[in-house]
Amino acid sequence: MTSLVTPTPSRRRHQLLRNHPIGWFILRRVGLGALLVIVVSFLVFLATNLLPGDAARAMLGGRASEGQVAVVRQELGLDRPLMVRYGAWLGDLSRGDLGRSLTGGTTALSGSAGDMSARSVISIVAEPIRNTLVLGLITVALVIPLSLLLGVLSGVRPGGRVDQIVSVLTLVGLSVPDFVVGTLLILGFAIALPWLPPVSMLAPGESPLGSPQMLVLPVLALVIVSVGFTTRQIRAGVMRAMESDYVEMARLNGILERRVVLRWGLRNALAPSIQTFAQIIQYLLGGVVLIEFVFDYPGIGAGFVQYVAARDLPTVQSVAMLVAVLYIGLNILADLLVILAIPKLRTAQ
Q1: Could you tell me the pTM of the whole model?
Q2: Which of helix, strand or coil describes residue 105?
Q3: Which candidate among 89, 222, 263, 308 keeps its CA 20 to 30 Å from the CA of 299?
Q4: Of 1-10, 104-113, 257-266, which range is least confident?
Q5: With contact defined as beta carbons under 8 Å apart, do 318 and 125 qualify?
Q6: Closest CA to 218 of 289, 168, 145
Q7: DSSP assignment, residue 262?
Q8: 321 Cβ partners below 8 Å, 6+ apart?
Q9: How far is it, in rounded angstroms, from Cα 119 to Cα 116?
Q10: Which fold has domain 122-310?
């Protein structure tokens, strides 16, 4: 007679883990990401409230009386305890409400501190975020294939002429600061050779794609400062892969060198490079402040500095949280792509 043994919860979990390792990995990473978002939200809220100055005073101006400032502080909830304000702000974030700006679109006081019609944070940051996304995505679309091409050509024959040229160019790109690259491009292609506009000023509501010539120099500057890091990472991965035993065995079996490079060399070099690409995307989409300032580009990086200077706390907090969520999401996606690219890692999760 066969006895039925009820599996314990730990055994059931172990069985599910073996049957669905990627699913458990995603679940754990998403859970950890959610916890990290909460921690970051508290740090962001605490840091913004520790900024010097008074948001109500900055909103009303230096001529406002203490009574007017007190009324505005009460209306904004700034007189409540810090943790009470944090709880209310976190609750609004969970519902997708980023709050209302303290400075954008406010009307002048008309005898009462409460006569204000502040714009929502979403309406203020939507356009700068769109501009930065356009700039960043175009750069990423150029950096990834260019890095793959240069990294493979350099790593297949280390020490060769191509490798030496690529190494020098990438080292220069890594050594020169962002603002110096942008300034040199303006001097070369906007002043010495007046082919392109020196700044990327856009009219309110205008899409960057409507004036593509405005994007050439900022994108070129970002490609120069980004492609060096990713190229060197891919080069190192290709070199390690090409020196491995399985690549040597493939060569001994008479497989064409091109196929060896693409099937084994590039594939095994891509997995370590996925995290590198994720870091570059985070750097680009998080708001490239220096490049945006050099070219007077109306992106979220340049706007963020203005929001901090104006003590617009809801806008600063919302932008910081959007960037943090983007960073965490990209890290989770990069980890998942690494697992998918290396089959043996799936059973280790």
Answers
A1: 0.75
A2: coil
A3: 89
A4: 104-113
A5: yes
A6: 289
A7: I
A8: 37, 40, 41, 44, 93
A9: 10
A10: MetI-like fold (1.10.3720)
CB atoms within 10 A of CB 347: 8
Domain assignments of the chain as residue spans, ordered by start? 10-119+313-332+342-349, 122-310
Helix (H) or strand (E) holding 163: helix 161-175
User: Would you list the DSSP string of 250-300?
Assistant: HHHTT--HHHHIIIIIHHHHHHHHHHHHHHHHHHHHT--HHHHHHTT---H
Residue-wise pLDDT for 91-110, tens only, equals: 888 888 887 777 764 433 33
d(CA 279, CA 330) in angstroms, rounded, equals 8
The C-alpha angle 264, 331, 28, rounded to 5 degrees, equals: 100
Q: How far apart are CA 278 and CA 333, in angstroms?
A: 8
Q: Given a cut of 60, is residue 116 above it in pLDDT?
A: no
Tokens describing residue 331: 């890290």
Question: Which residues, 6 or more positions from 280, have their beta carbon under 8 angstroms from its beta carbon?
Answer: 140, 143, 226, 229, 230
User: 3-class SS at 100?
Assistant: strand
CB < 8 Å & 24+ apart, contacts of 198-205: 198/295, 199/295, 199/296, 199/297, 200/295, 200/296, 200/297, 200/298, 201/296, 201/298, 202/131, 202/298, 204/127, 205/127
